[in-house]
Design brief:
By secondary structure, the chain is of the alpha/beta class. About 30% of the residues lie in helices and about 20% in strands. The protein contains seven helices and 14 strands. β1 and β2 form a beta hairpin.
Length: about 290
């Protein structure tokens, strides 16, 4: 089903962009009846734009377009939807916004790779951030800054539910690909959402997460486990992210190995920031690391 009612005042429209990285497709959410906030319009697929418009209740209009982060499966339709409806696009910032000083320096050096799926053309009409409130006569949405999957990643809180974008999903862990992805920030953001103890997560892909705190704990434990595996592997001698990923991700679909390499590199940079590991030379995508 392309469109479904999740609860009173909340609809989901599924974009037709299934893939190994998006599962069934991108979840676009519509909050409200007469004044409607759209969360993550999704990819620039004309049929998806029409599906969103068809989901507007009789007499309703889209008044706000919110974007969790600017990857090509979440943000490109925002501009087209804004042109169609006149609603402003709200997000943390463009795709190169919000990186840590280290990640910005690495991005400037241009030796780290990454940039998978980034919507380089994205630019919100209004920048919002931690604690921003968006309101209508029907609803109130609060913003939380949750960088990690991407530096400009936001989560949105509505009626005790959190729209968690690609930070927390029920079916997969997130891609964290430096310099846009940041494992240090990712761990802090997941821990912050866990402390909120929301009633449910509505994620960017997959089903609602009905045990949010437990899922956050599971993701944090998984990432700590990967870190331990990396450190154990480095006791055998220096290695780069590619070699470590092949050694550690032994049961992975080969199509997802490039993503595993990026996650491994993100862990290695996090370990450098903790002074637990160091690159044997400049910090690049192919650098060898040691402990």
């Amino acid at each position: 089903m392309t469109t479904r009612m999740l609860e009173a005042g909340l609809q989901q429209v599924l974009a037709p962009n299934p893939s190994p990285m998006t599962l069934h497709g991108t979840n676009t959410y519509l909050i409200g009846q007469s004044e409607i906030a759209v969360i993550d319009p999704g990819p620039a697929i004309p049929a998806h734009l029409e599906a969103i418009m068809a989901a507007i209740p009789a007499g309703g209009r889209i008044t706000h377009i919110l974007v969790t982060h600017s990857h090509l499966d979440h943000s490109p339709l925002a501009a087209l939807l804004s042109q169609r409806t006149g609603a402003p696009v709200l997000a943390a910032g463009p795709s190169d916004w919000g990186r840590s000083p280290l990640m910005q320096a690495l991005a400037d050096e241009g030796q780290l790779g990454g940039g998978e799926g980034v919507d380089h053309d994205f630019a919100p009409d209004t920048q919002i951030g931690e604690g921003s409130r968006i309101e209508s006569s029907e609803w109130q949405i609060e913003t939380r800054a949750t960088p990690g999957h991407m530096a400009n990643h936001l989560s949105f809180i509505w009626e005790g539910a959190v729209f968690s974008g690609d930070l927390v999903m029920d079916w997969s862990t997130s891609l964290v690909s430096p310099p846009d992805g940041d494992m240090t920030a990712f761990m802090a953001s997941v821990a912050a959402l866990q402390e909120m103890d929301p009633r449910i997560f509505y994620a960017g892909h997959g089903n609602p997460v009905t045990a949010p705190a437990a899922r956050c704990a599971e993701l944090l434990a998984h990432r700590r486990g990967r870190e331990a595996q990396i450190l154990q592997a480095l006791t055998k001698g220096p290695a780069n992210a590619q070699r470590l990923a092949k050694e550690i991700y032994t049961d992975l679909n080969p199509a997802l190995l490039p993503a595993a390499e990026r996650n491994t590199l993100a862990h290695l940079i996090d370990l450098v920031e903790k002074n637990t590991a160091k690159p044997d030379g400049p910090l690049t995508a192919s650098a060898k690391f040691s402990i």
